[in-house]
Amino acid sequence: MRNLERMLTAFVGIAAISTLVACEEVDVPQPSSKQVTAPQPPQLPKLAEPVVKLEPPRPIEVKKEEPKIEVAEDEDTSTTKPGELIAGARQAMSKGELEHAFKLAQAAVKRAPNRSAAWNTLGRVQLTKGQRKDAIESFEKAVELNPKSSFAQNNLGLALIYDGRYEDAIDALEEATELEPVESYMWNNLGMAYEHLDRLDDARVAYRKAEKNERATENLARLEGVKSVMKTAKADLPMIVPDGGIK
Predict the structure, then answer these.
(1) In angstroms, rounded to a whole number, what is the distance separating the alpha carbons of residues 63 and 34?
(2) Which in 72, 154, 200, 226 has the greatest CB count within 10 A?
(3) Looking at the predicted structure, is the pLDDT value of residue 82 above 60?
(4) Total domain count, the chain
(5) 204: domain CATH number?
(6) Going by C-beta distance under 8 Å and a sequence separation of 6 or more, which residues neighbour residue 53?
(7) What is the distance between the alpha carbons of residues 8 and 101, in angstroms, rounded to a whole number?
(8) Mean pLDDT, range 101-126, rounded to an integer
(9) Where on the phi/psi map is residue 84: left (φ > 0), alpha (ψ -120 to 50), or beta?
(10) How confident is the model at residue 92 (pLDDT cuts 50, 70, 90)?
(11) What digits encode the pLDDT tens for the residues 58-81?
(12) 39, exposed or middle or buried, with CB in 10 Å at 0-12, 13-18, 19+?
């Protein structure tokens, strides 16, 4: 019996030791080696960048000079454009080829009877040739077709001065100086018309408005201190009829 008790006691002791050993073999849980990162704040959606619209560079405007058009004397003008006939007539005038200019101006009027510039050019040729009555009629037609043309009004006034019709010349030249563009020679022509009617104060005012016009400066200097046109020579008429440009 005692032997049985001893055996049981020994068995219990061995079991206890075995239990202790089993506890020692259990690994103590180690802290995880995995790095824990702090939670990231939620990312806001990126705002779209403003679209900058680039404008293409603007082209530089280059004004092209109108080519000089010459029409030969023996050239057939039946198919030539009116603008080319007008330009050719002016070109011929600048060279002193009055007969050729006259032919081209007549052709321009025939091809474009409702074009003021054609009649204005014909009138210039006629006045240069000494055909005053015909020139006046041509300028009157040019003014009728385009009453806002300061060039046609001026040329009509100048032709009327040549013809001794100073009152009518003043009407045309006053109209010319109220339109655009106003050239300095228009004021000089108006001053001459005033002077021929002994309206010297008006003539001086007109001459002063003809800025940097050599002839007007001479006319104004001549009238300084003069009370009557009878005491001085009248203004000399210009021999060059101003060009009004192609219109």
Answers:
(1) 79
(2) 154
(3) yes
(4) 2
(5) 1.25.40.10
(6) none
(7) 154
(8) 97
(9) alpha
(10) very high
(11) 444 333 344 455 555 555 567 889
(12) exposed
Indicate whether 28 belongs to any domain.
no
Angle, helices 184-196 vs 214-223, to 10°: value is 30
For residue 74, tell me if it sits in a domain.
no
- pLDDT top residue among 235 and 211: 211
Statement: residue 29 has pLDDT above 60: no
Confidence of residue 246 (pLDDT cuts 50, 70, 90): very low
Q: What is the CA radius of gyration of the chain?
A: 52
State the DSSP string of 2-24.
HHHHHHHHHHHHHHHHHHHHHHH
